[in-house]
Amino acid sequence: MIIEVKKLIALKKYVGSFSTQCPPPKDKLVLPLAEAAGDISVEGEYEIYEDDSVGITLNISYKLRGQCSYCLEEAEKIVEYSYEALFVTQRDDPDNYYYDGVRLDIAPAVEDAFVFSQPEVLLCKNCAQSQGS
Ligand SMILES: [Zn+2]
Question: Could you tell me the pTM of the whole model?
Answer without folding.
Answer: 0.90
